[in-house]
Write a structure and sequence with these properties.
- This protein is of the alpha/beta class.
- The chain has 3 domains: 33 residues, no CATH class; 244 residues, Type I PLP-dependent aspartate aminotransferase-like (Major domain) (Aspartate Aminotransferase, domain 2, 3-Layer(aba) Sandwich), CATH 3.40.640.10; 72 residues, Aspartate Aminotransferase, domain 1 (Alpha-Beta Complex), CATH 3.90.1150.
- It is built from 14 helices and 17 strands.
- α3 packs antiparallel against α11, α12 runs parallel beside α14 and α13 packs across α14.
- The longest helix is centred in the C-terminal third of the chain and has 24 residues.
- The two termini are 40 Å apart.
- Bound molecules: pyridoxal-5'-phosphate.
- Pyridoxal-5'-phosphate binds next to α5.
C-alpha cells in the first residue's frame, strides 16, 4: 500500500493534507517521492525558518544524539542551560527566566497557568482571586482545552464546550473594546502581535503600546503569543522587539528548534520566580536534543541574518505589489517582515493548488487569504520564481472569469 493510503487508513483524519509525499528537504526546497522539486514558501507553518536540514542545526542535533537523548528534568542538562541563558540575554536580560515545553499550545497553557497563579497572589480589593483573561476575536493560541478556550474563534469551540472558563474576547486592534472588558477579576491580556491563523493580520503599534499602558494601570500581565510570529520572522528576533513593546511574558515554539518539538515561556524578572517547586512540569519539556537545536538556531539568528529577513521581505512585497497593479483579484497585502498575507476576492485554495502543481508550496489560512512563510535562506531567484508562478496563477483565474 502506498504512503497516502496508509496515512489515510491508519491516522485519524484531522488534517487536510496537501497531495504530495515528501521524501527529502534541503534549504528552501522539498522533493516528493517522484523526485519533483518544490520551492517551500510555507516552511512547515513557520517552523523550518533556517531551511530544511540546516547543516549547523543538524550537526548540533547529531552531537547531542551521541551523548544522550533524555534523562528527565530531575537532572541538570547543559543544552537547557545554554538555550535558556541565550533566550534571557537576548530578551529581558538578567533576572528573567524560562520554562521549557514541547509545543506552542503547551507554552501558552503554562503562561495561562502563570496568569492564574499571579491572580491568586495579586487579589482584588476585596481579597478575591483574579482570573479573567482577555484574548482577541480571530486569535489562535493552540489545541489544548485552555488554549482553545483562549482562542477567539467559535468554530474551534463547537466540539469542546463547556469551555475552560473566564476567557473574554476583545476586538483585535480596538483598544476601547479591551477597556470595556476590564473588571476587578481581570488578571491578564494575551495577544498575538501578528494574527497568523486568523488571516495574517498585524497588530497596530499603537494598539500594543496602549495594551501595555492598560496592563500597567490595572496590574495585569501582558502575554505575547509569539509561537508563529517570533524567532526572527519580523526582522527582529522577537516580535515585541519589532513593535517596541515589552510584554511580561512571551511564548515561543514552532521555529525555536527549526523542526524539533520545543516550546518556551519567557518571563520577566518580576515573574521569573512565580512558579515554584511542583507548580509546573513536563516529562519531555526541554528535551536535550531539541534544546541543542534551539541553541544552535539562536546563535544563527545574527543581526546580519535578521537584516536579510527585512531585505528579502521588501523585495518580495515589491513583487507582490507589481502583481496587485495587474490583477484586481489582489485586494490587500499585509506583512511584517517575512510574515506575508494577501487578501483576495477569489478562493485562496485555487491559487494554492495552481502553485502546488507548478512546484511552489504556499497556504491559505482563511478562505480568501494567501499565507507566505518562506524560510530565511530564500534567494532573490526563489522570490522571482514565486512572483512568476503567482502571476501565472492570477492570469489563469482571470481568464476563467
Ligand atoms: C500563534 C499560535 N499559538 C499557538 C499555536 C499552537 O502551537 P502548537 O501547534 O505547537 O501547539 C499556534 C500554532 O499554529 C500558533 O500559530
Amino acid at each position: 500500500m502506498d504512503t497516502k493510503c496508509e496515512v489515510n487508513n491508519y491516522l485519524m483524519q484531522t488534517y487536510k493534507r496537501t497531495d504530495i509525499v515528501v521524501k527529502k528537504g534541503k534549504g528552501q526546497y522539498l522533493w516528493d517521492e517522484d523526485g519533483k522539486k518544490y520551492t517551500d514558501f510555507f516552511s512547515g507553518i513557520s517552523v523550518c525558518n533556517l531551511g530544511h536540514c540546516n547543516p549547523v542545526v543538524n550537526s548540533a542535533i547529531k552531537k547531542q544524539l551521541d551523548c544522550f537523548l533524555h534523562v528527565s528534568n530531575l537532572y541538570y542538562v547543559k543544552p537547557q542551560a545554554d538555550l535558556a541563558k541565550e533566550l534571557v540575554n537576548r530578551s529581558f536580560g538578567k533576572g528573567a527566566k524560562v520554562f521549557l515545553a514541547n509545543s506552542g499550545s503547551e507554552a501558552n497553557e503554562g503562561a495561562i497557568k502563570m496568569a492564574r497563579k499571579f491572580g491568586k497572589e495579586n487579589k482584588t480589593k476585596n481579597n478575591k482571586d483574579r482570573y479573567e483573561i482577555i484574548t482577541f476575536k480571530n486569535s489562535f493560541h493552540g489545541r489544548t482545552l485552555a488554549t482553545l478556550s483562549a482562542t477567539g474563534q467559535e468554530k474551534f469551540h463547537k466540539i469542546i464546550t463547556p469551555l475552560v472558563e473566564k476567557f473574554v474576547y476583545a476586538e483585535f486592534n480596538d483598544i476601547n473594546s479591551v477597556k470595556k472588558l476590564i473588571n476587578e477579576k481581570t488578571v491578564a491580556i494575551m495577544v498575538e502581535p501578528f494574527q497568523c491563523e486568523g488571516g495574517m493580520i498585524p497588530a497596530k503599534k499603537d494598539f500594543l503600546k496602549e495594551l501595555r499602558q492598560l496592563c500597567d494601570k490595572h496590574n495585569l500581565l501582558l502575554i505575547f503569543d509569539e509561537v508563529q510570529c517570533g524567532m526572527g520572522r519580523t526582522g527582529k528576533l522577537f516580535a515585541w522587539q519589532y513593535y517596541g513593546v515589552k510584554p511580561d511574558i512571551f511564548t515561543l515554539a514552532k521555529s525555536l528548534a527549526n523542526g524539533l518539538p520545543l516550546g518556551a515561556i519567557v518571563a520577566n524578572k518580576k515573574l521569573a520566580n512565580l512558579f515554584v517547586l511542583g507548580d509546573h512540569g513536563s516529562t519531555f519539556g526541554g528535551n536535550p536534543i531539541s534544546c541543542a537545536a534551539g541553541f544552535a538556531v539562536l546563535k544563527l539568528m545574527t543581526p546580519k541574518l535578521l537584516k536579510e529577513v527585512s531585505d528579502k521581505s521588501k523585495y518580495f512585497i515589491k513583487g507582490i505589489n507589481e502583481l496587485k497593479k495587474k490583477y484586481s483579484s489582489i485586494k490587500e497585502i499585509r506583512n511584517v517582515g517575512l510574515l506575508v498575507g494577501v487578501e483576495l476576492d477569489l478562493p485562496a485554495k485555487d491559487i494554492v493548488e495552481f502553485c502546488l502543481n507548478k512546484g511552489l508550496l504556499i497556504n491559505g489560512p482563511k478562505e480568501h487569504v494567501l499565507r507566505f512563510l518562506p524560510s530565511f535562506v530564500i534567494t532573490k531567484k526563489d522570490i522571482d520564481f514565486t512572483i512568476k508562478i503567482l502571476g501565472e496563477a492570477f492570469k489563469c483565474q482571470m481568464l476563467k472569469k
